[in-house]
Write a structure and sequence with these properties.
Layout: H1 3-11, H2 38-65, H3 73-79, H4 97-110, H5 112-132, H6 135-147, E1 152-155, E2 171-174, E3 178-189, E4 196-202, E5 208-214, E6 220-221, E7 236-247, H7 259-293, E8 295-296, E9 299-300, H8 305-333, H9 339-363, H10 375-385, H11 392-404
Parallel strand pairs: 1-4
Antiparallel strand pairs: 2-3, 3-7, 4-5, 6-7, 8-9
The structure holds 3-thiaglutaryl-CoA and flavin-adenine dinucleotide (FAD).
Length: 410
């Protein structure tokens, strides 16, 4: 299959059932909007409006039927959702890290799978090509990835090497005029429909390097993983390399070692920290609305102290996460954000969102388990988010190492 066949396939999504979406009110208890620039607010509001109009009405059907809404990719490209903080000379947004953050927040307010698609493309495919690639690679791939003409995926995890990617077995040999790539990657977001994969593999000296593998290269396949209860509106698959001949110009020349992929993860984990707030905001907003409308014992359930306690605690946790993440964005803009600070925000915010999804689900009673409301979908999605990009416990250990100077992984 060549690239244009895959592009056509991405547009070929079955007819989706549209449902009516309730008006959304974003929680902003500490007037954080005032800390955003006019440009940040404009970007946030345009992505919010697009999500409300185009994605919210179909997302429950996508998740129920396990359909990734790939037909939205060209519009996501036009809106600047892919690689917004990379330079304009490569067709990207040239925006700052807070702009990137608010975009991820609004996309994940809709669905973590949609945010996955965007953050893999921006932080795990475009970022390494920009940061570690040659000028020719940047020019060849970045404008097409920014527009969504090409989609990418990121292959680090293997079936037996998840938290410990340094143990990977995927390898390549120098054959003189090309590299020969063998091995496989597991749990790869976007792989079933990606045009290119940024793949991390060991050379003959056991040193990790990044290679750009294109769909259509002989021996390269991307089988889909089925049966997920989580991220059902996102496509996840494997990457299989059976003697794939990779042109030498596809090696990312400017990095070697695990710091290559881990450096990309810093950017993606930062985006997740913002995104998780979006998922929490959606669940909180639904809980507030429902608690005012739902009557029991002849009163709105929002009049009961136990419901108010839940809502007050949710709002407090969202506000703390917003403050943590906004400050992290400032540090990122100044290139001062550390891996441990990013781990703290990813870890805190995803757990916060998962707890809020569960509490909000309880406030909706039995109705909360249906696709009339977003909580169950967010809750199931967040079970992936708390595992990928470093599990909850791996981030705790990264923080532990930062505090003590002693690593407890091995
Ligand atoms: P360690 O010895 O600590 O480090 C190896 C080398 O890497 C450097 N380094 C970093 N460099 C840049 N950024 C970072 N965040 C870095 N962290 C470490 C380090 O300085 C060292 O450099 P050098 O020059 O000395 O070689 O490595 P380790 O093998 O002990 O592992 C440490 C550990 C466990 C923290 C790390 O491997 C880890 O983070 N594991 C979790 C794996 C993970 O997050 N995988 C994510 C896969 S991608 C994904 O999930 C995408 S989901 C996408 C979606 O759908 O949204
Ligand atoms: P394991 O590493 O086997 O961990 C199992 C358990 O052991 C966890 O609780 C973990 O915290 C714990 N554990 C492991 N080591 C230690 C330790 N030293 N100390 C204490 N506890 C430990 N990867 C990619 O490369 N690209 C992608 O696009 C991608 N997308 C994904 C999409 C989805 C939907 C999912 C579920 C995963 C995706 N991943 C991707 C893989 C993801 O990054 C890994 O699942 C994750 O890093 C954990 O690896 P694992 O599943 O092998 O779990």
């Amino acid at each position: 299959m060549n690239l244009s066949d895959m592009q056509k396939k991405r547009m070929d999504v079955p007819a989706l059932h549209r449902k009516t979406v309730k008006k959304y009110t974003a929680p902003d208890h500490y007037l954080l909007d005032e800390l955003l620039s006019e440009e940040h607010r404009m970007i946030r509001d345009s992505v919010r409006a697009w999500v409300d109009e185009k994605v919210m009405p179909i997302i429950e059907d996508c998740a129920q039927r396990n359909i990734c809404p790939t037909h939205l990719i060209p519009e996501m490209g036009t809106l600047g959702i892919f690689g917004p903080a990379l330079p304009t000379e490569y067709g990207c947004g040239g925006l700052d890290q807070i702009a990137y953050g608010v975009i991820m927040q609004e996309v994940e307010r809709c669905d973590s799978g949609l945010r996955s698609m965007a953050s893999v493309q921006g932080s795990l495919v475009m970022y390494p090509i920009y940061k570690y690639g040659s000028e020719a690679q940047r020019k060849k791939y970045l404008p097409k990835l920014a527009s969504g003409e090409y989609m990418g995926c990121f292959g680090l995890t293997e079936a037996d090497y998840g938290s410990n990617p340094g143990g990977m077995l995927t390898n390549y040999k120098d054959m003189g005029d090309h590299y020969l790539l063998n091995g496989s990657k597991m749990w790869i977001s976007n792989s079933p429909f990606a045009d290119i994969a940024v793949v991390w593999a060991k050379n003959e000296e056991g040193r990790i390097h990044g290679l750009i593998v294109e769909r259509g290269m002989e021996g390269f396949t991307t089988p889909e993983i089925h049966g997920k209860w989580s991220l059902r509106a996102s496509a996840t698959g494997e990457l299989v390399f059976d003697n794939v001949k990779v042109p030498k110009e596809n090696l990312l020349p400017n990095v070697s070692g695990l710091k290559g992929p881990l450096g990309c993860l810093d950017s993606a984990r930062y985006g997740i920290a913002w995104g998780a707030i979006g998922a929490a905001m959606a669940c909180y907003d639904s809980a507030v609305q429902y608690s005012k409308e739902r009557l029991q014992f002849d009163k709105p359930i929002g009049s009961f102290q136990l419901i108010q306690k839940k809502l007050a605690e949710m709002l407090t946790e969202i506000t703390k996460a917003q403050l943590l993440t906004f400050r992290l964005g400032q540090l990122k803009n100044e290139d001062r954000a550390t891996t441990a600070q990013i781990s703290m925000a990813k870890r805190n915010n995803v757990e916060m969102a998962l707890n809020i999804a569960r509490e909000a689900r309880q406030i909706h009673g039995g109705m909360g388990i249906t696709d009339e409301y977003p909580m169950m979908r967010h809750m199931a999605n967040l079970e992936s988010v708390i595992t990928y990009e470093g599990t909850h416990d791996i981030h705790l250990l990264i923080l532990g190492m930062d505090i003590t100077g002693i690593q407890a992984f091995k």
